[in-house]
Design brief:
about 575 residues; Rossmann fold; TIM Barrel; 7-stranded mixed β-sheet
Length: about 575
């Protein structure tokens, strides 16, 4: 039997090497330039460790990544007919998808297309997208045959042992049996993680340089209301020998950055110490740097000593909110502000100033609470008496009501309304009106404009004009009027306007993506005029900044001609823009 395991992603297209690792190691692992499914690779390595499975089945891996340009306003994955062709080219009997909120709709469409072209094919969906009433998911998606709930290694191996028959015997499986939907045994997970052979050492995956991901362990001891991180709350870790071998593998292949996928690496102090020691045995020079999460409320002197020996590219701490009722509604302990600042200062001194993340829209939080949390943490980004700041960057997320989370189960009780397709961003509820969220998003965009290096949005909060938050002077609608007669898809002097968008991470300006007819392109940033910025190209109300796109460089004369065309259009049209109270572009 031929099995194909598919990962679906958006691959972030950077403007350039914005870190020593060429845009790897950023805030969001799934928006890497070259994403891949480590989960699928682990399924394959674990299953093929069984000789009877290896003798009867072939397992292949396929990662499909749709480019995500800076100005794109859709975050979810969309599959093309060509992607379906690539899947069918493997001639699979079974296709397994790793599902998340940002790709599950694409998986549903792909399943229908695959069934239409090859009716006998079987489609399996696993990952976090199967949480919360899996029977309803299967009933509503006729293209899907099997769902896997929880970690996938044991269910996948058992399905292969049974040749995908009698699936009601498999742990964590919900499947069709004729016209019925049947549920197998309760979900089960591998307790000895070293029983999962390393897909790296087996040559099953070869990540892009500096784009490697690694698990030190699995499980989470918390049960936060917004989270579906792990189905198994029991902490389990890979052994030091396994971690050491994977680090050696990475070092030998030139990797200088690894993202650790653990929910937090410091739940257990002795384990943290052992694993850091293993990393340093493999890499005594500290050539590889790491991006990872820590829990600020578990920091101890022994942990700080261990973290100081772990070369750090980025350390992230989830704060969520400083308002106690907001933490209580999501089953988190209230934050002691003084203790938090001390812990962050200690982490900063031991590693580097951490990225602190907060959430907009938590039930029980308020506008005032969100603003207080944001302003407090921003103030901690300032150095004090020559010491490094307690925080390096504040990262803001809009609440997402993940299927299967406690908040999802309480959605009616709390009156939560959220996007029902794609990423489940909060629209209103839990004490938040649409107007309150819009005011907070507008406030956030203003503060990001003033603090672009210290304040970021984890998702494209600025790309939600219907929900508020966007500066109307640099909205796609306004900029579209500024560059008339140019329209998307129109070509002038060899330049085609491909897209008008918004700066995803700060919302402080618009983006115009142009493609040169002989290859290459230019992205023009349009921001409100700021004399202090010293922009070389500016109109009465706007600063213009060209940035080459990845790929071949257009001729310098052609790029210069493009900027003259854009400048002329904006100069001609800017005086006709209607005045928006509170958003005077001359300010």
């Amino acid at each position: 039997m031929r099995i194909l395991l598919v990962g679906l992603f958006r691959s972030f297209v950077p403007e350039g090497g914005d870190s020593p690792f060429g845009s790897q190691g950023g805030f969001v692992d799934t928006l890497a330039p070259h994403p891949f499914s480590l989960a699928n690779a682990c399924l394959k390595s674990f299953a093929l460790a069984d000789p009877s499975i290896a003798a009867r089945h072939t397992i292949e891996l396929l990662d499909l990544a749709e480019p995500l340009e800076l100005e794109d306003d859709r975050e979810e994955v969309a599959l093309t007919a060509g992607d379906v062709d690539r899947i069918l080219a493997f001639d699979p009997d079974v296709v397994g998808f790793s599902g998340y909120c940002w790709n599950v709709d694409a998986i549903g469409h792909a399943a229908a297309a695959l069934k239409q072209r090859r009716p006998g094919i079987r489609i399996v969906l696993g990952g976090r997208a199967t949480s919360g009433d899996p029977e309803e998911i299967l009933a509503s998606q006729p293209g899907l045959d099997v769902l896997v709930v929880g970690e996938g290694e044991l269910p996948f191996r058992e399905m292969l042992r049974l040749d995908f028959e009698h699936l009601e015997q498999c742990p964590g499986v919900v499947a069709r049996r004729g016209s019925e939907i049947v549920r197998g045994a309760p979900p089960a997970s591998v307790q000895d993680l070293d029983a999962i052979p390393s897909p790296y050492q087996l040559g099953m995956v070869s990540p892009a340089l500096h784009g490697m991901m690694l698990e030190l362990g699995r499980g989470c001891i918390h049960a936060c209301g917004y989270c579906t991180w792990n189905s198994d709350k029991q902490l389990r870790h890979f052994g030091p020998s396994r971690v050491e071998a994977d680090i050696r593998w990475a070092l030998e292949r030139g990797h200088r950055h690894i993202t650790l996928n653990d929910s937090a690496i410091n739940y257990d102090t002795p384990t943290l110490v052992r694993l850091v020691e293993a990393i340093r045995r493999a890499d005594p020079q500290g050539s590889i740097r790491f991006t990872y999460n820590v829990r600020h409320d578990r920091i101890s002197p022994e942990q700080l000593d261990a973290l100081s020996r772990l070369p750090t590219h980025m350390v992230l701490c989830g704060i969520e909110t400083l308002l106690a009722p907001g933490m209580r509604e999501v089953d988190r302990d209230a934050v002691d502000g003084e203790a938090l600042r001390k812990a962050l200062e200690q982490v900063s001194a031991a590693t580097r100033p951490p990225v602190v993340s907060i959430v907009l829209g938590l039930p029980g939080d308020t506008e005032e609470g969100f603003r207080h949390t944001l302003e407090t943490l921003l103030s901690w980004c300032e150095p004090v008496e020559g010491k490094p700041p307690a925080a390096g960057t504040v990262l803001v997320s809009l609440l997402q009501v993940y299927r299967g989370s406690k908040l999802w189960h309480r959605r009616k009780e709390l009156g939560l309304r959220f996007e029902d397709r794609g990423i489940p961003y909060l629209i209103e509820g839990g004490g938040w009106t649409q107007q309150a969220l819009a005011r907070c998003k507008a406030f956030l965009v203003e503060r990001m404009t003033a603090n672009p290096d210290r304040l970021k949005a984890a998702e494209a909060i600025a790309l939600m004009p219907a929900r508020g938050g966007m500066d109307p002077w640099v909205s796609p609608e306004a900029v579209g009027k500024l560059i008339v007669p140019w329209q998307v898809g129109m070509t002038h002097d060899g330049w085609t306007l491909e897209k008008i968008g918004v700066m995803r991470d700060t919302g402080r300006g618009a983006l115009l993506r142009f493609r040169w007819h002989q290859g290459g392109g230019v992205r023009v940033r349009v921001t409100r005029r700021n004399p202090d910025r010293g922009s070389r190209i500016c109109t009465r109300h706007f600063d213009l900044s060209p940035v080459p796109l990845h790929g071949p460089m257009p001729p310098r004369q052609a790029a210069s001609r493009l900027m003259k065309l854009v400048y002329a259009a904006i100069t001609r049209n800017e005086t006709s823009l209607p005045h928006v109270p509170g958003h005077d572009p001359r300010v």
